Amino acid sequence: MVGLIDCDNFFCSCERVFRPDLAHKPVVVLSNNDGCVVARSREVKAMGIPDCLPYYQLMERYPNSGIVAFSSNYTLYADMSSRVMAVLRENVPDVTQYSIDEAFLDLNGMDHVDLKAWGEELCRKVERSTGMPVSLGIAPSRTLAKVASKFAKKYPGYRKCCVMATEEQRVKALQLTAAVDVWGIGRRIARRLEYYGVRTAYDFAQKNRGWVRGKFHVTGERTWQELNGDSVIDVDGLDTVAKQTIVTSRSFPGMLTELSDLRSHIANYAARCSLKLRRQNSVCHIVTAFIQSNHFREDLPQYSNSAYRSFLTPTNTTTEIVGAANAALDSIFRQGISYKRAGVMVSGITSGDAVQHDLFTYDPERSEKLRTVSAALDRVNGKMGADMVVLGIQQYRDKGADGKSVKFVNAIRRALKSPDYTTRLGAFTVG
DNA sequence: TCTGGGGTCCTAGGACCC
DNA sequence: TCTGGGGTCCTAGGACCC
Known about the structure:
By secondary structure, the protein is an alpha+beta fold. Helix content is 39%, strand content 21%. The protein has 3 domains: 8-73, MutS, DNA mismatch repair protein, domain I, CATH 3.40.1170.60; 76-227, Reverse transcriptase/Diguanylate cyclase domain (Alpha-Beta Plaits), CATH 3.30.70.270; 242-410, DNA polymerase, Y-family, little finger domain (Dna Ligase, domain 1).
């Protein structure tokens, strides 16, 4: 058996942990720049407010709803996540973190345990220790555990834990689950399934295996196997394996037209990518920069493009990655476009322990210097706060409140952000 | 005025090899 | 009148996830 434990309305619950006055009030959390609703409390979902609704439309359409909105506070969410995972690891031998708010639990060898009672107690422990409400689904496969966890969340009668152990339970649960709500079946595939008369998870599981394989390839077949109780999707070690691509991208609060501004943003994203590489002890061969105009503004000329630069000797130093990203940017920048979004991707990632040097161009002395600079950046910024020391190009100019030019790094609109309760003493004021 | 960000896996098809 | 067969590797793009 395998368990899937999932935090309830994770971002909203993080905000509520330190705002108990919001316990039964409608709460939403917004994306970067306070753009869209990315998390909704139970009360907000009950009001029929869809996910990804732009914030300004929320305000227009639900003016007196009493909804409390927060800007996203990833520092808080990351810390709350690690607290929840820590409690799980104290109580379960084999935990695989699957996302910021979910983990799979390997329950093999627990045949003698009353999983229902054990699961309920685990959920209580997590909530008692961290303030985070969680739900648990237990079933023979990960896809079924996901289905079970949705039942645990939806119906209070389960007391946070739904165990799907018998064939009867499996059939009933799948009959009550829409195909589109199954892990691995998205909107596209659901639409195609509907064409074939497949509406529920049970309809899909009842189809012939060869038919599924022919129409929906190996991924569809795997989902089919999982729904029929055969555990074939493996996520073990997912949380410890180094990433194969790393992306940092942002939308801007307004729009940008100048190359010099874009260069500063691209430099920030590239610096962030190189930091992520160093954190997982990796190096990359390829750096890609991309820029996009505002696709919502059909009245403006549209343009999006990307370009890459590669290294003969892979690297993770801030200096080299920023330089490569901006060289790529220069080759795709076009005048007369209002840019809304940009980003940097690093790929061709390999281990930093065994770097293959280029025979003809590798300069050990220069490489060592660049590595020393990056290591110093990480030490200072780790101690004094992110972006305390940056490359000059990472700063861009903007107008301050008094109309004078001010330098910023990583400006994002977060008008409604809560304090970093768990990571900054200054978040609490005394008296 | 305002419309998110960061990943993975799979397949088809082209380039190239013998 | 006629134009092989069987591989590998790479990339772009589609689909999915949270």
